[in-house]
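Subject: for your reference before the review

Hello V.,

The reviewers asked for a structural picture of the protein, and I figured it would be easier to keep everything in one thread rather than splitting it across files. Below is the amino acid sequence we used in the manuscript, unchanged from the supplementary table.
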Amino acid sequence: MKVLTLALLLSLPVGPLAPPKPMRQPTTQATKHSKSGRWYFAATGHAVYCYGPVMTVPRANGGLQKVATFCRDGSPVVPLKD
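And here is what came back from the structure prediction:
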């Protein structure tokens, strides 16, 4: 009986002896820019996290509006509260 058990154990497949390679983390836009972003207060009253510079753009009525660029929610431009 011991011989039969030993024969069955030795006939089982053995996994690889080397440790598995670590998987690469997928890179997304948020992980690429996570170190250089900043929180801003949007004109809508919400906080937004943006990676690009703050710019001043002309309004339709002739005035100027500050906007944050390249925000985490996917918006290219978000108007900021003054």
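For the response letter, the relevant points are probably these. Residues 48 and 67 are 11 Å apart (CA to CA). The chain is about 20% helix and 25% strand.

Happy to draft the paragraph if you're swamped.

O.
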